[in-house]
Structure formats: C-alpha cells, structure tokens
Amino acid sequence: MSYGCPTLLDFSTFRIACVTGDNGVGKSTLLEAITWALWEESRIGAKGSDKLIHQGEGEMAAELVFETGKRVYRVVRQRKKGKSAQSMLIFQIQKGDQSWQDLTEATIKDTQSKINQALHLNYDLFVNSSYLRQGHADEFTVKTPSQRKQILSDILGLQIYDQILKNARERGRDTKAKLEYLENQDQLLKQEIELKSQEEEKLKEIEKNYLQLKKMAEAKNKQLQSLQKIKNQFSIISEKIENARINYKEIADQINIQRQEIENMEKEAKEIHKLIEDKISVKKKVEEYKRLEAQEKILSQKQIEYHDLSQQLAVIEHEWSRLQNEAKRLQSLKICPTCKRPLPLKEADKVIQHLQKEFNSQFGKQQKTIKNKLLVLKYQPEQHQKIKEKMEKLYGAVETSQQFALLEKDLDNLLQNKEKVTGEIKNNLIKLQKIKKQGIQLTHQSQKIEPDVKKLEPIEKEVFDMEENLQRQSQVLGSQKQLIKNLEIKEKQQKKLEDQIKDLTEKQELLGEIILASSKDGVPAMILGHIIPAIEEETNELLGKITDGKMKVALVTKRTTQKGEEIETLDIVISDELGERPYELFSGGEAFRINFALRVALSKLLSRQAGAQLQFLVVDEGFGALDSAGREDIISAINSVKEDFEKILVITHIEEFKEAFQTRVEVKKDEAGSKLEVIG
Fold first, then answer.
1. Residue 645 to residue 618: CA distance in whole angstroms
2. C-alpha dihedral (320, 326, 328, 331), degrees to nearest 10
3. Which residues of the chain have pLDDT under 50?
4. Residue 156: inside a domain, yes or no?
5. Rounded Cα gap, residues 108 and 115, in angstroms
6. Cβ–Cβ contacts within 10 Å for residue 152, how many?
7. Helix (H) or strand (E) holding 452
8. Which of 214, 253, 292, 592 is the most exposed place for a label (fewest CB within 10 A)?
C-alpha cells in the first residue's frame, strides 16, 4: 500500500466526507485498507496481498475499529512476505470497561467466518452494493440477470431459504425413506398378527398333549422309583456277598499263613533241640579253649619281651657289621686319609684292633646279656602260632555255649506261640463257617429279587425317552407361548407404527409445504416481488433528481422467450425522452447516473436489513464523465441520502467536489509515502 508510515483515519469525527487528492496519491487505498482488513480482499484479488506491501518494506498491517449492532469490534490483519511469509488475523470485541476481549479462532479461516457473521456481509456483497469502486460503478448493472438476483438474495438474506429448502429436501428424503420402511414393517407385522388366533389354537393342543404326557411320565417315574429301591436293596446284598467273599478269602489266606508259621516254628524248634543235644561236647571244647587261652596269654607276654630283645640285638649286630666293613676298607687303603702319608699294613691292623676293642668295651657285655636272656626266655613263635590256630577252631563252641540260654528261652517262646496260633486257626475256621452260611443266605435273597432288578433297565430307558419327549414338548410349549407373546408385542409395535406413520405422514406434508414455500417460486419470490418494485421506485426517485426526470429504470422480473415461454429474469430496462435503449448506448455520464441511482438504492436496501448493520456508502471517482450540472445533481443526491447512512465517503480528484462537503480528507504523497489530513 502507498502508506509507508502508520496512518490514522477517525471516522467518528464526521458523517459524510470527501476524500480528495491528485490521481495516484492513495485515496482509494484507504478503502482498500478497509476491505483488506475485513476480508483480505482488494482490487487485485484475495491472493495479491504481497503486492499491496509498500515498496521496500517486508510487511504491512491494517487495523480497523468499527461499530455494528451497538457493539464495537477491532480487526488487526498483518502480512509478512519473503521466505518466512505468514499472515496474522486478530478479532476482538470491546467490553464495558473499554478493554478488548479476544474472539480470534485457531485458524484464519475460522476467524474470518466469525467476522463475516458479525458484519452479516461479505466482500462481494459490499462491492456490489455499498462500494462504488473506481472503474466498477456498473458492477451491478453489467451482471447477468441470475447474478443480479443472487446479489439481491444476498442483500435480503434469502440464502437462508436455500438452506431451509436443502434441509427440508434432505429431511423429506429421510422422512420418505423412513415412512416407506415403516409402512413395509407395518404390512409385515399385520401379516404376522393375522396368524395369532391360529397360533393360539395350536397352543391349546400343545398344552393338552403336554399334560397327558406329563401324567404318563409321573406314573412311570413311580414305578421306576419302586424298582430303584429294589435295585438299591439288590446292590446292598451284592455288596454284602462281595464283602463276605473278600472276608472269607482274607481269613482263608490268614489260616494258610498261620499254618505256615506253625510249620516254621516246628522246624526252628527241631534245630534248637539238635543244638542243645551237643551241649556236653561243646562244654569240653570250651574248657580246652580256656586252657589254650591261658597259655597264649603267657606266650603273648614272652612275645613282647622277645621282640624287644631281638630289636636291641639287631642294633648291636648292625654296629658290628659296620666295624667289619670299616676294617676291610682300612686294609685296602695305601695312604692315610688324615695325614696323607703312606699307610703300612701293620698300622692298619692296629687301627682295626683298636676299633674292635672299642666295640667290645661298649657292646660286648650287653650283647652277651641279651643272648642269655633269649636263651632263658625260651620263646618259640611256631608254637605260639599253633596255639592261636587251635583257639580259633574252638571259638565257635564258645559262642554256641553262650547261646544255649537264649536257645532254651527261644524254644519256650516257640512252643507258646505255636499254641496261640493253633487257637487262632480254630477261631478262623469257625468264622469261615459263619461267613459261608451268611453267603448262602445272601445269595438266596439276591436270586429272589434279581428278576425285578432286570426289569429296571427297560423301565429306565422308557422313562428316559418319556422325559426327553416331555422336555421337547416343554420346549415346543415354551416356544409357542413365546410366539404368542411376540405376536402380542408386535400388536403393540404395529399400533406404535401406525402412530409413527401418521406423524411421519403429517411431517412429510409439512415438509412439502416448507419445500414449496422455500423454493424460488415461494417466499423468496414473494420477497423479491415486494422488494424489486421498492428498489425500482427508490432508483427512479434518485434518478429523477439527477436527470430532471428525463430517465427512468424498470426492473423486469419476467420475459417471454422466442418460443413464447415466460421465464424468471431480472432485466434492467432504461428509458429516456427517446424511449427504451440498451444500457450500452447511453453516454458515460448517463451510465454513471443510472449506476449511481441503482447502487444507492441497493445500499439503502442493505442498510435497512435487520442483519446487515454496516450502514456505509462509498463512491470512488466516476464523476469525470459528468458535466457541471450533472456533478451538482450528484452532490445534491448524495446529501439527500445522508440520513440513510451512518458514513458516506466520496473519493474524487475533481476540485469542485472539495467545497461541496463540510468535511474533506486530503491525501498527499511524498517520498515516504501517502499522508492524509482531515479538514473541517
């Protein structure tokens, strides 16, 4: 934009003002700043924001504070270009304490939607009604009939009827589908319910058969219970017979074991008698063992003494052997090992004699004493060993003599046990007789009731079959009852369906009326039929003022095609003193008057709508095609409608317009950019 520095324009200081200045100084940029701040739209389109940034700058911002619906809002929009290009949009509302509450959403798109809701206005509607842009005063006039009707619909908020129509059609389709489904369900339910009386008769027959079968089953059950008691009795008897058989076998086995025990005891007693018969012979052997034991004791003492003396003698004899070896060695030496002189044989003999003398003095007496003691001791190892061998042979008799007392005691115990076991065998034989007798009695009882027990199995099978049949019949009976219950439920459902079908039918009729009313030929057509004459009247009233009643506009809503068919349209028919002519054949000044009158009429229509409360009219240039009288008429016309708008801006570079309005905004431009000044 052409404004290089922050610039403030306070609209609260005037109601109508003329923005003046030379061409290209930035007059229209003020309105571009407003539309860019509110909608990010300008004459170069929504995607041209970067082109609006002042040359040499990397970013721009516009802030707009406006009042609508007695509430004050603030919009701040920023744009940064380059590699890190980004946009920012802030939307706020003023609170009672003059502070600002943030209304900004998470995305720019959602925030923009919130701004449009507050304004009840979008950019296209604004530039086609309240904003006569430079070079685009004929924005509404050159539109196609359908586009003109759409603009009027947007101004009047008739798009709500499109939404109503869309919603009604969707709900109508849903209602129709649901109604068809419910009617189909209703028909199916009726077909099922018709079978109810037939199913109830069937239920009575099933109940009758079930009760008969139940009585038969009860009778068979009583018979079965009686036979089961007999079977239980038979089982008890059979168990007693089996127990008797087991007891008989156990006692018989016990008798066999006891008889084997007696046989073993007799065998053991026989062996003990045999051992006791050898008692005299064993006694002689024991006496011989004791005599030898006394000799062996003496010999053992001599053996110790003999062994000690023999060791002492061995030491002496070892020393004597060493001297003998030393003498032999000296006899063989030729040089004395001590003085290293020649050793004569005589000298060697002297040394040997000396050694023998020394041995005799030290060991001779002791050796003789030991040998004498050995002769006196008279110990013979061979004799000693023979005595030991005899004792070893006789030791078995010693052990046997020690067992005689125990054997005699064992023999007494064996005789007592044999007598005891013999008595037990007699008792067990008596028990066997009793068990045998009891077994015969039980077998007789078992044989007596066995025929009745054999009857049990077929009766059990019969009862089982009857119970299975009874269970099946019970299931059939339950299923039939459930079927009747389901039919009763379906009767209730069918009644509810009828109520729902009635409600949906009424709803469908109502939706049909809403669709008819919301269609193009319905309420929107009625509203347009009422509004278009008012626009035509408003346009002609203003056009009459600025053309001295020479020109007139007619808004035609229907026309006949070449085929003779009548169609909906919104044609602009213009006439003057010469009659009706196409818009293109009027001069620039005449065309501007027509456009001005139409646009002011549309702006007044917009300002009167309850939703759109931005009562703002902007006329940007377009006066150059007018002569002096025409300009005066336009100025007069603008002043005549000022009570219909809160703010009116007239943008022009024509000098005579500067003095026509009490307040003017003068715009100038230098190297730093555009600047403005409010005068008046």
1. 10
2. -140
3. 610
4. yes
5. 10
6. 23
7. helix 381-518
8. 253
